[in-house]
Design brief:
Layout: H1 2-15, H2 18-29, E1 34-38, H3 46-56, E2 58-59, H4 62-70, H5 74-80, E3 85-92, H6 96-108, E4 112-116, H7 118-123, H8 131-138, E5 143-146, E6 149-152, H9 156-171, H10 176-189, H11 209-218, E7 221-225, H12 239-257, E8 263-265, H13 275-284, E9 289-291, E10 310-311, H14 318-326, H15 328-335, H16 339-345
Helix pairs in contact: 1-14, 3-6, 8-9, 9-10, 12-13, 15-16
């Protein structure tokens, strides 16, 4: 029901002309850059998204777009194309970015940027935020003791509660070693082998270096850094590990890709996951720009290391994505004309 109500609201915005007015207002109001943040490429209609965006926005690789924003080349850009510049980013580097997003990028001639986690590319293991549900789905035990409570895995509400608790522990780990040790302890508690794997969706696995190289050679896919192992940087207790996660990621990607990687995307990326120490560590790491998941458009006055993005998802209807990219959810939320829209129906952070 929630999904259909959201589509109805987005359709009202679109067919009433509000989305078009919002796009026009953005063009007329000054120099802005819109950065959209996807993750997966399957599970929806990415083709319809890209067709819409290609029609109404000037889509660029992230470095070119940000350079244009800050280096006062916007006038030259508008001589070529009067549409608002927009960047398409995909965080984490899921394998379906290669099997689904990449063919569409080539076919429709739409540049995309993927933010990679080299530690997962090297290991080929599934990402940590997928582990709790995978473990619980495959656990041979009927109940598990966790934090002085007993959770019955055949009861959906208790299983979901335990999954949330596991995710919270992993997310707040103060080191990658602590995170991996906790995951190992949970596998033991659930009677799973330490090297456990299941019949998982291959598209949820990380990209391979061969796939990354193929996409880069096409010219339609560029890459940025997303830490070595995807910890939540603000929670790391060791400043040396913090700097290593950031700097080694750039070094390894630069070696693998054959050119300097200049942009960084913060894992999770809200203000509480960054902080001043993390921002400074990224700057020391040699990056020119860093992207958050904080909602909004970017202007020449935006902080180079706190660039905003609009979170969208491939499973959203294209009308919802159109309203998101035009900034309408944020616009109405700020005006408080219809506060229930953002509270109950928007995916914007």
């Amino acid at each position: 029901m929630r999904k259909y109500i959201l589509i109805c609201i987005a359709a009202l915005f679109y067919y009433s002309g509000l989305v078009g007015v919002a796009r026009w207002w953005t063009r007329r109001s000054g120099r802005f850059l819109i950065i959209l943040n996807y993750h997966r490429a399957t599970g929806g209609d990415l083709r319809r998204h890209l067709l819409y965006l290609r029609k109404y926005y000037h889509i660029l690789h992230v470095e070119e777009a940000i350079d244009d924003l800050y280096k006062l080349r916007q006038h030259e850009l508008h001589v070529r194309d009067r549409r608002t510049p927009l960047v398409l980013t995909f965080d984490d580097g899921y394998r379906d970015n290669h099997t689904h997003a990449y063919p569409l990028a080539r076919e429709l001639q739409v540049p995309i940027t993927i933010y990679l986690v080299p530690g997962y590319v090297d290991s080929g293991k599934s990402f940590w935020w997928l582990d709790s549900q995978r473990m619980l789905r495959n656990a041979p035990v009927r109940e598990v003791h966790f934090e002085e409570s007993v959770y019955k895995l055949d009861q959906p509400d208790q299983r979901a509660a335990l999954s949330r608790l596991i995710d919270t522990h992993i997310c707040h780990a103060t080191s990658v070693a602590e995170r991996e040790a906790f995951l190992l302890s949970m596998r033991e508690a659930l009677a799973l082998p330490s090297s456990f794997s299941d019949e998982e969706d291959v598209f949820t696995l990380p990209l391979t270096w061969q796939q990354i190289q193929e996409m880069q050679e096409s010219g339609w896919v560029s890459f940025g850094a997303h830490t070595m192992n995807h910890p939540v940087l603000a929670y790391l207790s060791d400043s040396v590990e913090l700097q290593r996660e950031i700097a080694e990621c750039q070094m390894l990607l630069t070696q693998r890709l054959g050119h300097l990687v200049r942009t960084f995307a913060y894992p999770i990326g809200q203000a509480q996951h960054i902080g001043d120490a993390v921002r400074k560590a990224v700057q020391r790491g040699g990056y020119d720009y860093a992207l958050t998941t904080m909602y909004g458009f970017n202007s020449p006055d935006s902080d180079h290391y706190l660039l905003k993005r609009i979170e969208v998802d491939v499973d959203q209807h294209w009308l919802v994505m159109a309203a998101e990219s035009a900034g309408l959810w944020g616009f109405f939320s700020r005006l408080r004309w219809v506060p229930f829209i953002r509270k109950h129906f928007s995916n914007a952070p």
